[in-house]
Design goal:
It holds the Pfam family Exo_endo_phos. By secondary structure, this protein is of the alpha+beta class. It has five helices and 14 strands.
Length: about 230
Amino acid sequence: MSDSPPLRVLSYNVHRWGDDRTALARVVKACAPDVMLVQEAPTWWGTRRKRRAMAATFGMRYVAASARNAILVADGIDLTGIRGRRIWRPFIRRRLNFIATQLPGGAVGGVVVLGSTRLAVVVCHLGLHPRGRVHEIAQVLTLCRSFGTPYLLAGDVNEEPDGPIWKRLAEEGLVDLDAGPTFNSTTPHKRIDAAELTPGLNGRRRHIPATREDLAAASDHLPLLVEIRS
């Protein structure tokens, strides 16, 4: 067995960095991730500036993004071979006969070295349209396979485990690191966030070392913390 330390990866929908930023920073720092896979990263005007500022509050660096997904890394962690994919989303019909569009979806990933193992870390945030999500996950998995390495895929899939997305992930042969309910952060009752590993990777979900008060204030989702050993 390798003596190299494990890789700690935090997947987190940060709700556009629009809730209690101080509580969010405490949660992330308590988790001490080497890599952070962010969904709903801040966007619109000054996108890169906002994302760098957010990363700085966590003591991390902003290194990659696609759509509203971003990857942050801790000092000493190199992310190479970065690839992203933007995915068109259809119109969706909301309540009261209003028509709304979704922002473009996508995924982004890169390769890190853990001991003698190269592995990809990929983050995605699937949309609200059920049929659209099936189209999206096919493209996300194509991106994952393109790295030619074992990989961790994590993110907000906007669907509970009895849906077709989870079935497709199982058909891909991925190992589901069951995190339990992740939404909402105040009264968790839906499992709509996933962390999926290529078979053969030695990974496990870890407890989030943060207070319930901070978790409720930081975002509307709970984070997922994964530890991978070589």
